[in-house]
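Quick one: structure for this chain?
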Amino acid sequence: MPLRSSILSLLTTTAFIASAVASWSYLAPASAQDTPYVPDEWKYGRRQTGSTLQYCLDIRDPDLPVARKIGQAIAAALLLEGKPHELGQNSVGEDLDNLYRAFLETCDIYLGFKLIPDAYPQWLAVTRPYYRTSYVMVTANMQWNALADMPRTQAIGATIGTSADIRLIQYLQSLPADRQWSRFPMGSDELALHALLSGSIGAALVWGPSFWAMRRSDPGLAKLRVIAPRPAPESSVDVGATLLARESFLRSSVDQAIAALTADGTIQAILDSEKFPATAVINRSIR
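Got it. Here's what it folds into:
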């Protein structure tokens, strides 16, 4: 797998392949942990934003409406003016060098990253999480309440490479051959959901925020419903923001802001206002 060119797609909340991160961390050479090279980096210096918090968002992230509000809430808690910057396919992309450049040029913090242990290069830090969400098991069958209700003759479609997909593979391999469901690897959550609609599979294992976002934009998905994954394991993930590791004071301030917004119910109120499938996180993130 690529060592440098797909870091955002591995770690952000987009519907791309999302968790060969452990493999990336294991295989990456020491140089991949070094600060990326940006020509004439000296000219950027340290941005003096004064009374503003410049927070970046990826327009491809399914949690974009929620992230906008959380970014503003963090800025307000810090008594700063929040200035969002919505970046997309042609601005940051999936490249470590471009991500580093975005921090130099624009971003104080970048929202919407999965807080996966040991997944980040040393020059990048993560905040505490502001919400916890999960991968979900989805079906079109109105009679099933859990995966256990689905006949073994039906297949599970799973977006390939995600942490949930890896756990599903491990679970299926632990079962006797005659008790296993077939697993069909899917290139994206969207492909998995459309395979479900076509009847090619009986259930789809997809990123919960992606299913939430696609149901809002595609009426054809209204017939699909979430069921319990049991007896397969649940797969929850904390989501937070990233920033340059050298910005230790900013990191501490943002962590305190997220903690305060969690304690007073602001984060949960934002999630509830969008009917977003996540909960505010009380405990601290990976450090």
